[in-house]
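Help wanted!
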Amino acid sequence: MDTVTGASSLVRALEDAGCEVIFGIPGGTILPAYDPLLDSVNIRHVLVRHEQGAGHAASGYAQATGRVGVCVATSGPGATNLVTPLADAYMDSVPIVAITGQVNRSMIGTDAFQEADIRSISLPITKHAFQVTEPEDIPAVIAEAFALAAGGRPGPVLVDIPKDVLAATTTYTPAPPVPTPRVTPAANEIRRAAGLIASSRRPVFYVGGGVVRAGAAAELRALAERTGIPVVTTLMARGAFPDSHRQHLGMPGMHGTVPAVAALQQSDLLIALGTRFDDRVTGVLKLFAPNAAVIHADIDPAEISKNRKADVPIIGDCRDVLVSLNAAVRQAPVLTSWWAYLDGLRDRFPLGYDWPDDGTLSPQHVIERIGTLVGPEAIYTAGVGQHQMWAAQFIGYERPGSFINSGGLGTMGFAVPAAMGAQCGVPDRAVWAIDGDGCFQMTNQELVTCALEGIPIKVAVINNGNLGMVRQWQNLFYRGRYSNTGLSTHDRVPDFVALAEALGCVGLRCAEKSEVDDVIMRAMEVRDRPVVIDFVVGEDAQVWPMVAAGTGNDEIMTVRGIKPLFDEDL
Amino acid sequence: MTRHVLSMVLRNVPGALARVVVLFSSRGVDVESLSLDPTERGDVSRMDVVVGLPAGRSPDQLVKQLSRLVDVKSVVAVADSARNQIGA
Ligand SMILES: Cc1ncc(C[n+]2csc(CCOP(=O)(O)OP(=O)(O)O)c2C)c(N)n1
Ligand SMILES: [Mg+2]
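Answered by r_m:
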């Protein structure tokens, strides 16, 4: 038991919790914490340029490493700038701890300078929020915050600390380990699930991000291979099952593959693992997988039967569930005709794209080449929009955690700071942000952080001159009336190469198919600085297949107006 | 709308009530009445709420969502008066 300041106690508690990197910006109320931080040997502080960047970086770090990410902000505007990343991490179940300074205890509730009630603001977007009122509570609160963030269904936790609590003299007593209860999957449900699997004729593994969070990829693969059952991986689960595996049908949902969507629709048994039947996957719920029985395994009981009633509910960590199922399933189902049907769809409706007629560069080609040349050992992040969907479709993922994106909240500007955080966690892997010209303009200031801190991420800006995804909807549903979706980025406002150089990065540009490979290779050779490549691509490319919002999955279109599952009797 | 009675035990910490009320608001739950009473233990309070849910929505989901809150020690739907129509 040592006599310390609250601030030192905080830093020691963070060290004891295993924190190795913090993303943040100092300010008045958090200032006391920055003093002992200067002396910490275990914790690296990365000085970001905007607190939103700190929050997404913590998320990228957490998703790349499987550990808890940490971000720090001062009170008031610093704290409110964390709102978007907290909401983002809440939707995608990412374990992060956000530490915010707060005005002195005696000033709380007086509209003091830079006072914001961040604990109340964060209520619907955090797992829990603490406000520390006694300095001696700091070690226990930090330990509990880390345990809460990582335990059960992971998510963001806020710790708000008034300045005088940080400045006070207190004692440091290491917190005892916080027990994290783990539910054992119910044996009777596992038995029922195994029975349904053995007797199913058209089963499919519907795999979500929970499998990634649980570190259950190996167990999934074992069960998939023993049973021969096809697998689809949602946007949050890309990489949970190797794309190169012959049982993998790709991503389901609004921009999923025809075989993946059809497998769900025609299924007689959905084995849903760590997934939440999101509307982007199900389309109109009433029309989703109408003949399927549902086994739904999730660590969060509140997700089970939320959108679709589960016939066999299994509460538990996906790894525990898969281990139990592996032990319980004795007999593999007979799937010959099911595979004949799915393979037929695979042959007839492979993922593909047309080259633009106007001779412009194809964005899908650019992304596909990045995936091929950079390879599956890298980590890819994405913003939100067309480029995100193409990154999900045209890069082959072989490892869980190799694709990090904003699935639930759909946060533009996620890619660059998430890549920064991921690179800090896994310095030996290449980290590529696949970004849009719109998204990039929301958070590119973090490239300054990357340049100064030696975080050599690569950013591929898929510059289609537009808020492309919105433009695609305007093209399809608003008679091509392009209201406020042009960005002038094809007129070089801004000039992304010049901007990159100004931010301390290498800036490259490519507008020709013949130069794509070359520019990617050149970017890969740069190791001492971040690289931005401005890929000038056509503005008319669209994301296909597509299930239009408000329609059922059977109405999936491979291109505009062509509905293979709906029109034909397959 | 159907009416349901929830009985909860809440930790007596700042923000606990706010978190429960925000959950009702985020999830579109109609609160008809709400009472919070101290218990003999002192570190927890008892909360009884009568909520209205859109027809066809069961209180199970709500109970599970409330159970996720750190400050909610327990929650049960006591009288599932699903036949008890509000308004009608
Ligand atoms: C913060 C935020 N604001 C607005 C949106 C709505 N939105 C979704 S995609 C998109 C366009 C993104 O443009 P860009 O980054 O250029 O990507 P593209 O679709 O062109 O590949 C917009 C505006 C959003 N998802 N997030
Ligand atoms: Mg764009």
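OP: Thanks! One thing I noticed: Residues A 385, 436-438, 464, 466-468 surround magnesium ion (ligand 2) (CB under 6 Å).
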